[in-house]
Structures are given as C-alpha cells and as structure tokens.
Amino acid sequence: xxxxxxxxxxxxxxxxxxxxxxxxxxxxxxxxxxxxxxxxxxxxxxxxxxxxxxxxxxxxxxxxxxxxxxxxxxxxxxxxxxxxxxxxxxxxxxxxxxxxxxxxxxxxxxxxxxxxxxxxxxxxxxxxxxxxxxxxxxxxxxxxxxxxxxxxxxxxxxxxxxxxxxxxxxxxxxxxxxxxxxxxxxxxxxxxxxxxxxxxxxxxxxxxxxxxxxxxxxxxxxxxxxxxxxxxxxxxxxxxxxxxxxxxxxxxxxxxxxxxxxxxxxxxxxxxxxxxxxxxxxxxxxxxxxxxxxxxxxxxxxxxxxxxxxxxxxxxxxxxxxxxxxxxxxxxxxxxxxxxxxxxxxxxxxxxxxxxxxxxxxxxxxxxxxxxxxxxxxxxxxxxxxxxxxxxxxxxxxxxxxxxxxxxxxxxxxxxxxxxxxxxx
Length: 425
Prior knowledge:
Layout lengths: L7 H12 L13 E10 L5 E10 L2 E6 L8 E2 L4 E4 L1 E6 L4 E2 L5 E3 L5 H16 L2 E6 L5 H9 L7 E4 L4 E2 L8 H13 L4 E5 L14 H13 L3 E6 L2 H8 L4 E4 L5 H10 L2 E3 L4 H8 L1 H4 L7 H22 L5 E2 L15 H10 L3 H7 L2 H6 L17 E4 L13 E6 L2 E5 L14
Parallel strand pairs: 1-4, 6-9, 9-10, 11-12, 12-13, 13-14, 14-15, 15-16
Antiparallel strand pairs: 1-2, 2-3, 5-17, 7-8, 17-18, 18-19
Helix pairs in contact: 1-2, 1-3, 4-5, 6-7, 8-10, 10-11
Keywords: Hydrolase
Protein name: Amidohydrolase
GO molecular function: hydrolase activity, acting on carbon-nitrogen (but not peptide) bonds
C-alpha cells in the first residue's frame, strides 16, 4: 500500500482551488434560462422523444415541452440529442511525458499538470460530462479545479489511491479496513481495488476472499462504492464479497456473470479501446513500468476474448453492464470509440450502449437522481450528435454540442450560431 503523493506541479492547481470562488467564469450572476429545440432526443433511459423543447434554468432541466411554439435559444433539430455520457473508468492524469513515453501517474512537472488539464478538456469535448478516474492522487486537484470552475472538464469522481494486492498474505483485514478509511479521509469518492494482476501478466488473483470481504465491507460502512479490477476467479470472489462493480471481467464464466446479475453487481468490461490504444501507441509504452514485449503479445491474444466477455454479458439476463473505457495516455478524447467496439465487434444493441453510459452509468455511480437522463430536476448535461447512433454507431464520433450543468462548452452545429425565434436555421 503506497503513501498518497501529489506532485508539486499539481499543488499549484490545489492552491488555485483554495483561492478561487466557487463559481465558473462562464456562469452569469443572474438566473439564466435556455431553451433548446430538438427533433430527436434519446432520454438516457431507453426512450426516444420527438419534437420537444428542453427548458433549462441555471444548471438544471426544469421542463420538457412537446409543443413547437415559443422562443428558442439553441436549435438542435436534425441532430440527435442525449444526456452527456458517463465513463466509469478512466485515468484522467495519465499522459505521455516530454520524451514521448508513457508517464502514467508519476508526472511531476508543470507540463504534466497542463497535459492533465488537456485530457480533461478533450474528454469533455468528446461528449463525456462525467468520468470516474480510478486511482491517482493527482486526480484530486484536477477534480476540485473543475468543480470550482477554474478549469473546464468533465465532473470527476476519483478513488485517490488504489488498494493493490500482491498475491501474498500482506494486508490483514484490519489493515485493509484502515486503508479504506484513509482514502475516505483523503477525499476519495470511491475505492479502487486490484484483485488481479494485469491481464498482460496473466490476470492471476492477488487478494484473498477474506481481504476482499474486509475491503468491500469497510467501504460500505464508510458510504463508499467499490470498483474491483478483476479477471478469472477474482470476478466471483469480488461478487461474493459484495463489491459494487467489477472492472474488466475478462475470462469470467457464464456462471460468474449470472451470479453478478443475481447480486446486482455492475460489470464494466472493455470491448476494445484500451487494448487498441496500447497497440496503437506500442512504442510509447514499451519499456515503461509494466509494459513488456511479452505483455503486448498477450494483449493481442486477449482482444477477441474481451469481445467475447461483452457478448456474453449482453446476453446475461439482468446483468447491469455499464460503460467504461480504461482510458489512459493516448485514449483521452477518443473514449467514444468504445461504443463502436461494443456495437460493431460485440453485437451490443446501440440503444443499450447509450443507456449504459447514461442512466445505468449514473445509477452505478449513485447519481441517478442527478445525471444520466434528460428529465426535469436533473443536471443539464446535454450533448448532440451529427447523426443517429441507433442507425450508425460511428455518429458518436461527431459530437457537435456539449453542455454541462447548464453551461455550453461546444456548439459547432450550424457554424455555432444560436437559432432565435423568427430566424430560419
């Protein structure tokens, strides 16, 4: 268990957070009302709304009107409108260093802080208004800077420092419980647990059932969710331990998936982007910590197996499969490619793919009453695509409008010119 450490460059962001008022520079002082016209809205819960007006006041949706009359501020007719996406698994501060090689979470320069801020920006521009960054102390100042409106980016939930098993008896249940409480005190929104080795190293189990039981039970007592990096037999062990969500799940059996459905355990498998990104950037990763030639050979073999676990998960009745990418250096801003992998390579229904990153993703985060759907009372996290992802999943690459919490960060639809009543689009 490593001590938490935030490099000095990220402390600059922390200091800015402490000094800045909790208000975005883009937020007007008076109450703001925005009306969006939309011809096709995927509501995030599996339904499609037609010809509606979405009324927003400040940061929230206050009404959805089905009439076509009245003033309109932004005309998104002809596009597909849906809630901002939720990525349940990213590593937002991972980047390539000055030498072009993978720096992971160990960046210590001002440039690393800038790259982390850039990662947040491109992720938001890609339509992801909420992400879960699972395991780096550097996440904390970035999360807080975005929350205070100092930097633009997606809403971030972070695990701060992960619990890492080593495959031995190290870490008694009491020590593990103390570690969980330490993360709570450090501001963690959730607990990330490594119950398996990397799939590049075979994916063997690294925590015992007793250790997993202690970690997930203590997290519940602290009011925190648990995300467990698990392959093979660790999937069943984490499910039996009552953990909230399984990450990856590769080489789990159909019986394991059925048990997850019975227990209400969420599954976040990756259908392709993470391995495709590694292979695309092989020379930038090779030789850095944890990345060997043998590991890359293993990843090439595991890619079709990742497709299979998503296929099996999609066919398991009642299994809650959320959307996560495991985005690391090279993948930030390309998160939506995972949708294409799921639909094209794993046969996932396009609407189910959208819901996995909307209402189901919000439910898994314990935020279903705040985000993930287009409905009155929820945060105004709204994006628009040039195209229909239900007919052509590659439309997810064409995000032309991004609003988070009532603030518009991107509007490249129709030359970024708002439509007003009486003016033809």
